[in-house]
Amino acid sequence: MPFPDLIIRGQQVVLPDAIAPRSIHIREERIVFVGDYRDVIADCEVIDVDNAQVIMPGLVDTHVHVNSPGRTEWEGFNSATRAAAAGGVTTLVDMPLNSIPPTTTLAGFKTKLETARDDCFVDVGFWGGVVPGNTGELAEMLAAGVVGFKCFLVPSGVDEFPHVTEADLRLAMPELTRLGAMLIVHAELPGSIRADGGESEQYANFLASRPRAAENEAVELMIRLSREFDTRVHIVHLSSAQAIPMIREARNAGVKITAETCPHYLHFAAEAIPAGATEFKCCPPIRERANREELWDGLSDGTIDFIVSDHSPCPREMKLRESGDFMRAWGGIASLQLRLPVVWTEARRRGFSLLDLTRWLCAKPAQQVSFERLKGAIAIGHDADLVIWSPDDQFTVSAAALYHRHPITPYEGELLNGVVHQTFLRGRKIYDRGHFSTSPLGHMLLQ
Ligand SMILES: [Zn+2]
């Protein structure tokens, strides 16, 4: 057994299949031994965690819009990865759009890497994008290290990342299958989406403009194409619970399809969103309470694989809070820092355990992007990425305590369970109760 540089131990260590008293031995950034709580070594530094605190693998968030370069005024690697560290997230994967250039060409990817390198407080991976006409770029981007590719079936909100049609997908999907790459899909089809839904400051009208049908039809299309081309397809930010049985059935029939949902769909309910409260706007929309409970059922039976933030911030003025116009406001909820307490608050209310939480927030997202040999678990050989937090402590969300660039949040004033104290990235403390490591220690994770 190699001599460790550091031992972190506690009474509640969340292992892949148990919560137990353990000592975690760390050497050269990796976990080299997980022993009994009493297994410490003389002369080695030991961090002893309070009995009421939990040691969990650092969170993995595979759905984050950092928007840099090009829209750094919306967010940026420095601010986003600080918010991540403060939320117990040690690995995030950046989305290919909203940055200029977008990550849809090898050149665009290289520009993004130059921007991100040396400016990240946590480890960062990258999605590429599938847009009309870029099939020829996919192999090179994958070889350069993107984890897979995202496409939109409806306008994305930015001109430089156009959506694809079925005809475009018929060109891209055989290539993705040949490369063994995953296609992640913003699953709403334009056919059922209505441009105007009556008074635009009423949430119900916005909700009616983006009905479940738009999602259901998109999921149906993706199941059909995945079956035809044998491509790995993943549905991002699933909001329509009606699509769950379709996904379950397809998967049982051997279709390579997975799905994620987001904290806001699991916490909020459309009925309670006030008029003009555009901080709640995202696409697909937050739906009714009954739909929310069905999403929880989908998580419970494993049809929905995991929960990621879809952190998508913008400058305050783009939220149009003054007019409260849901139809024209930017759609996106920035919750990178709050995913752990939001999901835990709701999960524990429904009888789920810290093991479920760790599967949804750490292990499964790591698996999605093939990071599971190093990320998402407290196990020998893994990176020593850890979050130390108190599941029983409560706090009230205040935008002023959020570290992303424009801390506008629908969670303002919410009372949540779960306070993050410290975050370790590859054995080094990157966050400690409001303080960050002096320099950004994050690596670029290239596949
Ligand atoms: Zn997104």
Helices and strands in order, then pairings?
Elements (H helix, E strand, L loop, with lengths): L5 E9 L4 E9 L2 E7 L8 E4 L5 E4 L1 E6 L12 H10 L2 E6 L11 H11 L6 E4 L1 E2 L5 H10 L4 E4 L13 H14 L2 E5 L16 H7 L2 H18 L2 E4 L8 H9 L4 E5 L1 H5 L21 H12 L5 E2 L31 H11 L4 H15 L17 E11 L18 E11 L2 E5 L2 E2 L11
Helix pairs in contact: 3-4, 4-6, 10-11
Backbone structural class: alpha/beta
Q: Roughly how many Å apart are the termini? A: 29 Å
Average pLDDT figure = 96
What pattern of helices and strands is seen along the backbone?
Answer: EEEEEEHEHEEHEHEHHEHEHHEHHEEEE
Largest sheet composition: 9 strands, mixed
Shape assignment: globular
Q: Quickly count the helices.
A: 11
Helix residue percentage: 25-40%
Could you list the spans in which at least 5 consecutive residues all have pLDDT below 50?
A: none
Total beta-strand segments:
18
Any idea what the radius of gyration is? 21 Å
The set of bound ligands, ions and cofactors reads: zinc ion
Task: Describe the structure using short key phrases.
447 residues, alpha/beta, nine-stranded mixed sheet, binds zinc ion
Walkthrough of the structure:
The protein is of the alpha/beta class and 447 residues long. The protein is 27% helix and 22% strand. It has helices at residues 77-86, 106-116, 135-144, 166-179, 203-209, 212-229, 244-252, 263-267, 289-300, 339-349, 354-368, and strands at residues 6-14, 19-27, 30-36, 45-48, 54-57, 59-64, 89-94, 123-126, 128-129, 149-152, 182-186, 232-235, 257-261, 306-307, 386-396, 415-425, 428-432, 435-436. The strands form 3 sheets. Strands 1, 2, 3, 4, 5, 15, 16, 17 and 18 form a 9-stranded mixed sheet that branches. The protein has a 6-stranded parallel sheet with strand order 9-10-11-12-13-14. Helix 3 (135-144) runs parallel beside helix 4, helix 4 crosses helix 6 and helix 10 crosses helix 11 (354-368). It starts with 5 loop residues before the first strand and ends in an 11-residue tail after the last strand. Zinc ion is lined by residues 63, 65, 95, 310, 312. Zinc ion binds at residues 63, 65, 95, 310, 312.
